[in-house]
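Q: What structure does this chain adopt?
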Amino acid sequence: MVTPYNDSRGKKEQVKDMFDNISARYDLLNHLLTFGIDIHWRKKAVSCLKPHSPRILLDVATGTGDFAMEALTLKPEKIIGIDLSDKMMDYGRAKARKAGAENIVEFMTGDCEQLPFANNTFDAITVGFGVRNFENLEKGLSEMLRVLKPGGHAVILEATQPQNTIIRHLFSFYFVRIVPMIGRLISKDARAYAYLPESVGAFPAGSAFVERAMAVGFREVTWKPLTWGACALYLMKK
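A:
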């Protein structure tokens, strides 16, 4: 199992500490390291939910709330963002206040593998670059399935490795050599942005992830690569 700090603590505790450590620079680095394309990825993912007009949404591993805020374009009644790191969500709360949406977007601290919600609660679930941080992927997916209403949809964005050989080599050089260096300089956390390419490399992406999602009970699971395969968009239904 790939973990941020490679010490004796469990992955959840390490992930929480990592995001607490980099929370103040997380948004800056996200936009900088993806050249702002992450904004387009979230718009693309949210557009997948538009035909279904979800009213109650859950944003799993919400972080600073960018996915939750983008989901406001769906005009839902309620969005709940849940994450291990309260420091990350403090930035999300500030975004919601600035947008005048604090009555719609709520942030709560919690374990994404033990969601504190009743069965069949949400019309839709979003996850942005969070599932590879799960300690137990199947457990996290099963919990998402449990709290999703029958017929509801989950949309997931996750970093991945391009399939094209030339692009993969260029991506690998940037992701393994450049990203950790920039991340270390700006975030002051030497491990956080080294963990990023390590966790992406270890994650069961593409068709392998589709198989995992279907194994826990999701159906109509599809995926598509975005931006030459640097990101994958997964759409699934309960």
